[in-house]
Amino acid sequence: MISSLYRIFTIGRNTLTESIRQKVLNVLLIFALVLVASSFAFSGLGTPGLDASGMFDAQIKFVKDAGCGAIGIFGFLITLLSTAQLIPQELHNRTIYTILAKPVRRSEFLLGKFVGMVLLLTLCTALMSLAFAATLYWQEKQAVEQTEAVYDRDSRWKADPGRVADYNHDVAGIVAQIRDPQLVEAVLLIYFKLLMTTAIALLISTFATSSIFTIVTTFLIYLIGHMEGTARDFWLASGANSSIWQSGLVGFISLLIPDMNSFTIVDEILAGNKVPWTHMLNLLGYADVYIIVLLAVSVVIFDYREI
Amino acid sequence: MESSAPVATPFAAETAGLTKRYPLTWKRKVLVALDHLDLQVRPGEVFGLLGPNGSGKSTTLKLLLGLIVPSAGEARVFGLPPDSLEARRRVGFLPENPYFYGFLNGDETLRFYGKLCGVTGPRLERRIEELIELVGLQNGRERPLRSYSKGMLQRIGLAQALIHDPDLLFLDEPTAGVDPLGSAQIRDLILRLKTMGKTVIFSSHLLEQVQEVADRVAIFSLGKKVLEGSLESLLTENQSTQINIPAELSAGQQERLRAAIAQAGVDDRDVRFTRPHLSLEQLYLRTVQAQADLASKNHPGK
Amino acid sequence: MEIPASHMSTCLPLSRRLRRAALVALLLGLWAPCKIVWEQHIAREQDLLRYNGAPMTRQLRDELTQGLTIGVLSGMRNIVADFIWLQVTTEWMNNEWFRMSAYINLCTALQPRAPVFWDMGGWQLAWNASIAAMLDRTQPNELRRLKASRFWVDRGLEIYKRGIENNPTYWRLWSDTGMLYDQRLKDYRSAAHYYRTASEQPNAPVYLERFSAIMYDKLHANDDQAAYAEWKALWERLTPEQRKMKIHQGDRIESEIRRLEQKLSIPKEKRVFPN
Q1: Residue B1 reports pLDDT greater than 60
Q2: pLDDT (tens digit, 9 = 90+) per residue, C235-249?
Q3: How confident is the model at residue B302 (pLDDT cuts 50, 70, 90)?
Q4: B89 vs A contacts (CB less than 8 Å)
Q5: N vs C: which end of chain B shows fewer Cβ within 10 Å?
């Protein structure tokens, strides 16, 4: 068991090394960092309100949305493009022969590849989150300075406890929005959504004949997954009223495609609303079990694949 | 399906009715890559697989390695199914063409494959040093494999095949694309492995080389094994005898010998006196080695 | 060598292919019902946590361009909403009030639980649009301008109220509605109600607690009873330490209570400040 895990981890580390030594990934990552930083420029167009307080609500929302959105999009691109060519490249270069000639099970090989992708995603998400945190920090500093500038128009405001209370209230509002501990939950949700995408891409690649097929199919599943909730509700409610084709298609989607839309609860967190950890764990548990099922099916298909 | 229980057997590798068919769906035909192969390789043997491209040599190797699944028949390695972990622990594989990761350097490659074979820690490091020394890759160990020449790739390939000290080695075209000096070194290595009691099964186009190392060979054609046997028995021309005389004979001496043979009761009409030839390889090696020896005498330590 | 395709089935043992298919079917077959049950459970929890944004109906799809539709479909609802919000600002600067109103509706439909869209949207309509209508010289007379201005105030009020429905604990929406009733609609009773509710929400600023009482003072009929009730309730809510703090303006509250107790001739035993 230990030796099996050791072999899986060895292949995983090797996969990670390969991804890092591929310059393409570094370029993507730089793009991601640039985009997160450029959420500043985007946010400068926020609308002012009736008074100094709340002036930055829209701006902070933009920064949070753009930052998390960039992590999501670039994470998606990185994982999709990397995972899709994992197996085809091994088959094309025949490097898989050398590995499978060693005492390595096919399942260990496949899981090792997945572990490599997990390591890569973790690294990329961590780096992008760091950049995001830096962006938020800078945004907070800027917002507090600008708020103080507005109050400073009346030079005697610091003597008035009412005004001071208002200022503290405004600053507390800004800080609470930016230093929202729930942002950790948000990034975790995005990360797990990416892990699910990775597992889906890996599954498709076990029987696909080209990377393009894997990329397109995974992308389609990703999109359809966001409508799976609607399909499921329809299927469960429709009963005998729909045609066999409708029922079949909608049933197929409900039974096999993951509900990707449940991860968009991230929107709620970014808008500042509370999402309890119990719900988070529920979602993460769902993602974990789904990933395990996808990996199990991948292992079965790959075990029987002619190479 | 094959049974996965080990079977007591005197053979290092054996096949019974081993067949592999590939569907060629676009041509609406089936390709029979290997057709009912029966083969036995004893431990300690050096066994050569010969045949033109597409004759089934590589397919046989891959079936014996458990990389592909037979359409029919059975293969066993030390009595075990080839795709079992136990079998693969005792087997090493040098693939034709570089099936290695180009982004790893020599050391990293050996470390990676060593770990996969269960060789770890200081033992692994010792092994890497030994093998680098053995295959002569001191210069290239820090460079990525994508910058290696074909000869260097074969060397690292041999090293990774030996990293876990296997009992049986599969070498697919081990000297293809390698210069004659390197080839000779690989040949010597194979012979050395034989003296260590290892079994070697290799495929090659280079008939001269096979002749120098192999104990037994099998000749393949169009997926079938056409001929099998020891080199000795296959190549010996049973209908004639060769006598080697290390001297040049004059015409008179040749006539007297001919008479003596006739007296011994042998029909002397087809007796021929010829000069033995060196092979081009032997001449080349002799020349190049002499140069190398001269250079090291004049510039010791280089 | 090649042989006819009739031998296709002999390429792999049948048992192998069947086993693979059976295993895959088993795994997926076991998982599918669990998956559905679990997803329903998650969906129910999420419905409680939020009012899901408008589903991707045909109408919504028509209003969004193709790129934005894909954005919404791939779970980037919030970014699409932000992007559309930029249009709100643009239309404001172009004084295109109806278009701006449409974009505000779109943003709030996409993300009803982002309070900033309701708050800013209501402000844009009830203040910016209505004041612009008041100053609009292209209207033939004052009455028309007043009507147009009032139209936008009503639209803004509607946005505030729907925003409160979707985000009942966001203090600013209550407070801004109160301010609208107070300063544009002159409905002080409603303003008092909204201000009071605003001050009860989490993170509300301290000064709001006094506003409801002040509203009663502004009523032309001067509803002293209601004002007294408000001031008294506020005094009783504050702790002794808080009453001493300048931000809570304890002395002002005390003076208002005393004045009203005097004015309303409250019996001494029922007074907060009997002496």
Answers
A1: no
A2: 888 888 888 877 788
A3: very low
A4: 103
A5: C
Residue numbers in B near A115 (CB within 8 A): none
Residues of B in contact with A107 (CB under 8 A): none
Residues A104, B113: C-beta atoms closer than 8 Å: no
Please indicate whether, in this complex, the C-beta atoms of B30 and C16 are within 8 angstroms of each other: no
Among chain A, residues having any CB pair with chain B shorter than 8 Å are 3, 6-7, 10-11, 14, 17-18, 21-22, 93-105, 306-307
ipTM of the complex: 0.85
Show the tokens assigned to C95.
């004084």
Among A267, A268, A288, A298, pick the best mutation site for testing chain C contact (most C Cβ within 10 A): A267
The string of pLDDT tens digits covering residues C110-149 is 888 889 899 999 999 999 999 999 888 888 888 989 999 9
CA A289/CA B210 separation, integer angstroms: 55
Confidence of residue C224 (pLDDT cuts 50, 70, 90): confident
- Neighbouring residues of A302: CB distance < 8 A, sequence distance ≥ 6: A87, A106, A107, A109, A110, A206
Burial C109-122 (b: 16+ CB within 10 A, else e): bbbbbbbbbbbbbb
CB contact under 8 A, C8 and B71: no
CB burial readout A28-43, b (16+ within 10 A) else e: bbeebbebbbebbebb
- Is B68 an interface residue toward C (CB < 8 Å)? no
Residue C103 confidence class, pLDDT cut points 50, 70, 90: very high
| A6, A7, A18 ranked by CB distance to B101: nearest | A18
Report the residue of chain C nearest B68, measured CA to CA. C12
Q: Could you read off the pLDDT of A102-128 as tens digits, one per residue? A: 999 999 999 999 999 999 999 989 988
Q: Which amino acid is at C82?
A: D
C256 three-state secondary structure: helix
Model's pTM, two decimal places? 0.85
d(C-alpha A294, C-alpha A301), whole Å: 11
Looking at per-residue pLDDT, the higher value among C61 and C45 belongs to C45
**Is-contact B78 B9, C-beta < 8 A?**
yes
Euclidean distance between CA atoms B252 and B262, whole angstroms: 16
> From the candidates B1, B30, B224, which should be mutated to test the interface with C, based on the most C CB atoms within 10 A?
B30
Residue B192: CB partners within 8 Å, gap ≥ 6? none
Give B290→chain C minimum CA distance, Å. 48
**In this structure, which amino acid lies at residue C67?**
G
B265 DSSP assignment? T
